[in-house]
Specification:
TIM Barrel; 9-stranded parallel sheet; 331 residues; globular; two-stranded antiparallel ribbon; alpha/beta; 11 strands
Length: 331
C-alpha cells in the first residue's frame, strides 16, 4: 500500500498554521509530510521562510504515525554536512521509524544567502555527493575524518546521539545521471511532477542504477512531489495558481534565480495557459484523482500533494473524503 502525503509549504504559510494543517491531514488519510526547506519564498506573495528543522520537530511530536522529511535540504552551502547529519540523527531518535532525510543540490534562492560563488550544476552535484558521503559515515556511528575531499573538511569526530537504524536518505532530482546514482548509492528518489514520458525515464534510470549493484528497485521508495490547484470553481483554482504559485507556470530551470523579487518580475509574464501540462488546475476532484492514479500506475510509492491555494482545510477534507479512498495501489 502506498502513501499519499501532504506537502507542507513553509515558504507559503505561517509555521503554526501549517502545523495545524499537517495534524488535520493525518486525521483525513494523509500518511506522510514532505516539508519544504526554504530560506526565502519563491515570490513575495507567499510570504514565509520558517526553519524546517524546528517545524519538523514540532510536527513529529504532535502527530502520531506520519512519516516525514525535508523536501529537500541542501547539505552544501547554508548547512555543513556535519550539521545535517546531527539534525537528522536527532530527529530520527525522537521519532523512530518515521523520519527520512531528503537532500538536494540546492537553489540560489535559498543557498546563495551565505554569499560566495554560485557554482555550475555539475559542481553542485559533486558537492552534494561528497556531502552525502560524509553524512552517511557520520550516521553509521563510526569515527570520521574527512581531510582529503575537494569541498568539505571534517576533523576526527563521531556522532554520539544516534538512532537504532540510520534514517533512509533520498535525493531529489529531475535528471537521468543523478537518478541512476540514487539507485546505486541511496535508499530512494524524490522527483517533481512532470510528463509521464520523463517520469518513466527517471524511474527507469533509478531502477537501472539499483540493479547494477544488486538491489531490487521495486522495494525502494519512489517519491513524487505534485503541485496542483483545487478550489470550489475553476476560476478560483486558476486565481490561486496565478497569485500564490506563479512559479508553477515557469517552464525553465529555476536554480540560478536569486530573489523573490526576481521571480515576481518573471511572474508578470505568466499566463493561465503556461500551467498546461505542468500543474493541473481544476475544481473537479475526479480529474485530480485520475491524475494522481496515473502517477501511482507509473510506480511511485509516495505522492506528496501541494494544493497551491490558501484553502488548505477544504482541500485536506475534500481529498481525504473523495480522492484518497478511491486510489488503487499496485500490489
Amino acid at each position: 500500500m502506498g502513501i499519499i502525503g501532504y506537502a507542507a509549504a513553509l515558504e507559503q504559510f505561517d509555521p503554526t498554521e501549517l502545523l495545524g494543517y499537517a495534524q488535520l491531514a493525518e486525521c483525513h488519510g494523509f500518511g506522510a509530510v514532505m516539508a519544504a526547506d526554504h530560506f526565502q519564498p519563491w515570490v513575495p506573495q507567499q510570504g514565509h521562510n520558517a526553519f524546517v528543522w524546528s517545524w519538523m520537530a514540532a510536527m513529529g511530536a504532535t502527530t502520531k504515525q506520519m512519516t516525514f522529511g525535508p523536501g529537500v535540504t541542501c547539505p552544501s552551502f547554508r548547512y555543513h554536512p556535519s550539521t545535517v547529519a546531527q539534525a537528522a540523527a536527532t530527529q530520527a531518535v525522537m521519532t523512530p521509524g518515521r523520519f527520512w532525510l531528503g537532500l538536494g543540490s540546492g537553489e540560489a534562492l535559498n543557498e546563495r544567502v551565505v554569499g560566495g560563488v554560485w557554482p555550475e550544476p555539475h559542481v553542485r552535484l559533486a558537492m552534494m555527493q561528497e556531502a552525502i558521503g560524509i553524512i552517511k559515515q557520520l550516521l553509521s556511528g563510526k569515527q570520521v575524518k574527512h581531510d582529503n575531499g575537494k569541498y568539505f573538511t571534517i576533523e576526527r569526530v563521531k556522532m554520539w546521539t544516534l538512532p537504532a537504524t540510520p534514517p533512509p536518505i533520498y535525493v531529489a532530482t529531475a535528471g537521468p545521471i543523478t537518478a541512476s546514482w540514487c539507485g546505486r548509492e541511496l535508499d530512494g528518489i524524490i522527483t517533481p511532477g512532470a510528463s509521464h514520458e520523463k517520469l518513466k525515464m527517471l524511474l527507469g534510470k533509478f531502477a537501472d542504477g539499483a540493479r547494477s549493484v544488486g538491489r531490487d528497485p521495486s522495494t525502494m521508495p519512489k517519491l513524487l512531489q505534485l503541485h496542483l490547484s483545487w478550489a470550489d470553481t475553476d476560476e478560483e483554482a486558476t486565481h490561486n495558481a496565478m497569485t500564490e504559485w506563479p512559479n508553477g507556470g515557469m517552464a525553465f530551470p529555476k536554480q540560478d534565480i536569486r530573489s523573490p523579487e526576481d521571480f515576481a518580475e518573471i511572474a508578470k509574464l505568466v499566463r493561465p495557459e503556461n500551467f498546461k501540462n505542468r500543474m493541473l488546475i481544476s475544481a473537479d476532484l475526479d480529474k485530480h484523482r485520475a491524475q494522481i492514479q496515473s502517477f501511482i500506475d507509473l510506480g511511485f510509492t509516495e505522492i506528496h500533494i501541494h494544493n497551491v491555494g490558501r484553502n488548505q482545510t477544504a482541500f485536506i477534507e475534500q481529498f481525504g473524503r473523495n480522492v484518497i479512498p478511491n486510489l488503487k495501489w499496485q500490489a
